Amino acid sequence: MVAENSRKNSLLSIVPTGQLDQLPDGEDVLLRPDAAGRCIGLAPQTLARKRHEGTGPHFCKLGRLVFYRAGDLRNWINLSRRNHT
What is the pLDDT of residues 14-68, one digit of tens each? Predict the structure, then answer.
């Protein structure tokens, strides 16, 4: 399934739910919370809590469905890097 992003006039790829264990190439690839969680090592429930608290990666809503852009997941991971505890 492909959705059009009117802001950039580019096509977004939506990754179907399945056995995905690493972030796909491309910034605009859309992942459902279960696939995103598998890629970054978090449960879908943890991502839901982080969405509610505003502490997780940026997300998109298309109707009632939640998606994460692969680029936003990478950015969130990079912003979470620390030099010490």
Answer: 666 555 678 888 888 999 999 999 999 999 999 999 999 999 999 999 999 999 9
Instruction: Classify residue 50: in a domain, yes or no.
Output: yes
Structure token pair of residue 64: 């009632």
Q: How many CB atoms lie within 10 A of CB 53?
A: 8
Residue type, position 66, single letter: V
Give me the residues paired with residue 10 across strands: 5
Domain that holds residue 62: 2-79
Q: What are the angstrom distances between the C-alpha of 32 and each of 46, 64, 85? A: 13, 12, 31
Is residue 84 a part of any domain in this protein? no
Q: Please tell me the total count of domains within the chain.
A: 1
62 strand-pairing partners: 65
Structure tokens at 83: 């030099």
Sequence-distant (≥ 6) Cβ neighbours of residue 34 within 8 angstroms: 17, 44
